[in-house]
Design goal:
19 strands; seven-stranded antiparallel sheet; 7 helices; globular
Length: 351
């Protein structure tokens, strides 16, 4: 019998020979992880056997590169993968761990219930803690704060984080709360906003998050932006990022000049209505943005000027108000439907 296919999608993988990171199509089955250079390739670039393997997450071997997890084979070969956002990483980690456990017990793969206790387990679940912190009613409150002649939007202080952890009984005292907060910062759930907090994060100290009222931080997927410190043009650019994140993930995008297709990480925001796209293997600076106010998005069956092997279904097109055309490809029909629905909603409601 062929092994059951469990999950597939785009991840960024570190090369085993070279140190470069590249976006690959990953397929998880009951007994291994296959990765392909392109989704349309028939033969995998490599296969990682899961029998006797271990998984490490979060993996903090690469400094500022966050959302990384590591699969170590029975022969002690390490394979590093990076997700585009936290929910995506947690989903992959959970399924790979379950596949490894089922192999060890000689059982067929089956997902466990996803219900979790809100109390921290013995092994601290930073993702769960982060979700609690972001709760609109009972979490850490995002504020508009003025520091160093700059206005920081959607942020909070290090002292606020520590106070919240103690008040919610996630930590018994300030040193313990500071340890949890530092873990959230090191793994990229929290980001430093001002000069003081950035210096603390880069200091290499045991507690890189500062328990100080002047140290500012923000949630990694919030609408944080800073204004009042540079040119009008820069402030205008920052305005694009102030909206709430509605959806994010990897899609194939056709280039405007060469008409070739590349994997890009997309982040959709509302109010203002923008979708930014990034090279998933690099930093946080976007390659470009699409202003969605007044745009039209529809599913399409073919793309003009596309090479034949590029056509693999699940295509859709965004036409902006100034009639610029963007062609994108989702990994599956349901994913295309979700992106179209989300973009349509933002284009109508966002300014």
């Amino acid at each position: 019998m062929e092994p059951q296919q469990i999950k597939e999608g785009y991840l960024v993988k570190k090369g085993t020979v070279l140190n470069s990171w590249k976006a690959v199509w990953v397929v998880l089955s009951e007994d291994g992880v296959e990765f392909y250079k392109k989704k349309t390739d028939r033969s995998p670039k490599g296969m990682i056997p899961l029998k006797g393997a271990t998984l490490t997450s979060p993996c903090q071997d690469f400094g500022k590169r966050t959302l990384v997890f590591k699969v170590t084979t029975e022969k002690k070969q390490d394979h590093f993968f990076q997700a585009t956002h936290m929910e995506e990483r947690e989903s992959w980690v959970k399924d790979i761990k379950r596949a490894i456990t089922c192999l060890q017990g000689g059982k067929k793969f089956a997902r466990k219930s996803t219900r979790r206790s809100i109390r921290l387990p013995d092994t601290i679940n930073l993702n769960e803690l982060y979700m609690l912190m972001k709760d609109q009613d009972d979490g850490v409150k995002e504020l508009k704060l003025e520091k160093e002649k700059r206005m920081f939007n959607h942020c909070f202080t290090g002292t606020t984080v520590v106070d919240w952890l103690i008040s919610k009984e996630k930590a018994r005292n300030r040193p313990e709360a500071l340890m949890l907060a530092t873990g959230l910062l090191n793994e990229g759930f929290l980001q430093p906003a001002g000069d003081l907090s950035k210096e603390g994060a880069e200091s290499g100290a045991q507690s890189s998050l500062l328990d100080e009222p002047d140290a500012l931080y923000y949630f990694a997927d919030s609408g944080f932006f800073c204004e009042g410190y540079s040119s009008d043009e820069d402030v205008l650019i920052k305005e694009e990022f102030r909206g709430n994140i509605i959806k994010q993930g990897c899609l194939l995008k056709q280039g405007h000049r060469r008409k070739n297709w590349k994997v890009r990480k997309f982040i959709l925001r509302d109010d203002p209505a923008y979708i930014h796209y990034y090279d998933p293997t690099k930093g946080d600076d976007p390659l470009g943005s699409i202003h969605l106010r007044g745009s039209v998005v529809t599913a399409v069956e073919f793309v003009p000027d596309a090479k034949r092997y590029d056509i693999d279904g699940n295509l859709f097109e965004i036409i902006t108000s100034d009639e610029t055309h963007y062609f994108l490809q989702a990994a599956a029909a349901e994913e295309r439907k979700e992106w179209i629905k989300a973009i349509q909603a933002v284009s109508k409601s966002g300014k």
